[in-house]
Amino acid sequence: MLKILAGAALVGTLAALPAQAHDANVYDANGHLVGPLVGIKDLGIADPVLDKVTGLVVIKLNGINHFLSVSAQGIVNTGPKFYFISSDCSGAPALLPFDIGIEILPYAVFDGQTVWSLATKQWQGYAVHSYLQRQACFQLPPDTNFVGAPAVPARVNFTAPFTVK
Hints:
Layout: E1 2-5, E2 11-16, E3 25-27, E4 33-42, E5 53-61, E6 64-71, E7 74-75, E8 81-84, E9 95-97, E10 109-110, E11 115-118, E12 124-133, E13 136-154, E14 163-164
Antiparallel strand pairs: 1-2, 2-4, 3-4, 3-14, 4-5, 5-6, 6-7, 8-12, 9-13, 10-11, 11-13, 12-13
């Protein structure tokens, strides 16, 4: 097992699937392919209600492959943090963590309404001054450095529940 830092800024554990599971795919209630199941993710939260093992699929969003967390109930709301150059969580772009030198793929996030992909070609270091999480804005210390990419809404149309076949 490997410790990971996901785009949603959650520390968890990622486990590879056994060789015979490589043909496992996640489908929605209408039989549409969500993506190949490439691993499982434990959010690493010490809470029996919140700590759920979820599936990790690879899905193409806005022309770029991303990891995305899924469960039997659908796409997992990862409670992402969106970072901003402004001090009041306003303006564009909202940014998500991503380091092209470390991460094999960007990690798409779901905030309960929208799946957000990353514009990886705009990856760079930013000086950020605030972040938004669960509709609350928080200021960061002056000159906080951040490596990331702009968050871009992705069009997905899947219906829960999800199954693995």
